[in-house]
Amino acid sequence: MQKTSTEAVLKKWKAHRETILEWLKSHGYETQAVEKPAFFTPRTQVMKELKIACIMDPFTLGSYGPECRLLELTPEHWREEVDAFEPDLLFIESAWQGKEGLWYRKIVHYSQELFELTGYLREKHVPIIFWNKEDPVYTDSFMTAASYADVVFTTDIDCIGKYKAELGHDRVYHLHFAAQPALHNPVEFYARKDKFCFTGAYYHKYKERSQVFDRFAEKMIQGKGLDIYDRNYGHARPEHAFPWKYKPYILGNLPADQIDRAYKGYFYGVNLNSIQQSQSMFARRVFE
């Protein structure tokens, strides 16, 4: 099933609304219901018209896309793209891939393209934001990228002090993951399977996480069953590959724009957090 637009989602919601109201009325209940859910109220035009040039991975791009005007930059043509778009700000995520994989390792290693891009936008007085969604594990790895930003955000509130000390300024804030209501909502599209579903990766270096997954997976397989959507399916390095025993349960991968097939296609969703000792950092799928 193709991803539907916001209008189609709203139409589906209204249909469910009418069904529920009819049932309530037939059972003697009188009630009022809003015409549209709160998350479909119009955003301010200021936010909608905000032009943000960005380097993001697909899941972040999908979450921010409905909120403003985004332009994904490329390493080869960023200058022409910036000049034509005239962005209000530059948003750099601790991205591993970026647009179509073109920024692979170019953020974490602070490539020449990124150095020239940030310098060019600084000359144009365009604010630069850096968001490290990989804290606290990769704080040091992305510190150079953060040092070229005007404002730094982190998913781990416990890392704020370290950033301030390393960067020599106080423009460091907490920015958590969040759900995007246009994508992550309770509107039903699929017949739900009476099984467990896990979407994500297997990290051998996180021993406790792996052990917990193994214990849970054994019980889930013996019970209702388990389907796995492997984030690194087809291109996993050995340290990110699911153990061979899980091969029969891996259905493939789900790209960011199809993740609702997992969230809405099953009665039970499984979450595991790699980070255990943070006040604020946990997987984005919790919100979604």
Question: Would you mind describing this structure in some detail?
Answer:
Strands 2-1-3-4-5-6 form a six-stranded parallel beta sheet, with helices on both faces. Strands 9-8-7-10 form a four-stranded parallel beta sheet. The protein is an alpha/beta fold. It is globular and about 65 Å long. The chain contains nine helices and ten strands. This is DUF3880 domain-containing protein.
What's this, in brief?
The protein contains nine helices and ten strands. The chain has helices at residues 6-26, 45-48, 58-64, 78-85, 112-123, 143-147, 160-167, 207-222, 260-263; strands at residues 51-55, 69-72, 89-93, 128-132, 151-154, 172-174, 193-200, 226-230, 250-252, 266-270.
Index terms:
alpha/beta; 4-stranded parallel sheet; 9 helices
Please give the alpha-carbon distance between the first and last residues. Answer: 19 Å
Percent of residues in helical segments? 25-40%
User: Which residue ranges are poorly predicted, with pLDDT under 50 across at least 5 consecutive positions?
Assistant: none
How many beta-strand runs? 10
Radius of gyration: 21 Å
Proportion of beta-strand residues? 15-25%
Approximate shape? globular
Number of helices: 9
Largest sheet: spatial strand order:
2-1-3-4-5-6
Structural class determined from secondary elements: alpha/beta
The major β-sheet equals:
6 strands, parallel
